[in-house]
Amino acid sequence: MLRGLKVDLKSRSMRIEATFSRTRKGDVYRHNSLVNGQWWPLQICLVRDGAHNDMQGGISSKTDQGAWSIVLSAGNRESGGVYPNIDEGDVLHYCGTDAKQPDGAVTENTKRMIESYQLKKPVRVFRSSKAPNK
């Protein structure tokens, strides 16, 4: 499960080994050779296997290309999180990220989610084990 990862016990951090040759990019649409029902113990494993491109962020995206994937975590307010995400199984209400700007503008990654919606591009969804069950 943790193949290709280097653990630094002193700093309590983890990274993908530079010499690990089986790493894939996650900046592609559709399944990217992944299978429904696959699971990963940590978000860094999603990055290593080309499922998601961000080690910590919930939205993996690029300007003018939209978003490729999202991680739905314990973000809803009922679970004590900050984002009121709603997971109804086949339907998700994903709130993106707070802008932290006085004018209420959305962040770049949230703009990419909107862009994917407008371009009708598919977005891979990963549910965290910390996400509430509905």
| Uncertain ranges | none
Rough shape?
globular
Total strand count, please? 7
Portion in strands: 15-25%
CATH class: Mainly Beta
Q: Which class of secondary structure composition applies to the elements?
A: alpha+beta
- Largest beta-sheet characterization: 3 strands, mixed
What sequence of helices (H) and strands (E) makes up the elements?
Answer: EEHEEEEHE
Cα(first) to Cα(last) distance is 27 Å
What CATH calls the topology is: PUA domain-like
Assigned CATH architecture: Roll
Number of domains: 1
List the keywords.
alpha+beta, 7 strands, two-stranded antiparallel ribbon
Question: Could you explain the architecture of this structure?
Answer:
This protein has 134 residues and is of the alpha+beta class. It has a single domain (5-127), classed as PUA domain-like (Roll). It has helices spanning 43-48, 108-119, and strands at residues 5-8, 13-16, 59-62, 66-72, 86-87, 92-93, 124-127. A hairpin with a 3-residue loop joins strand 3 and strand 4 (66-72).
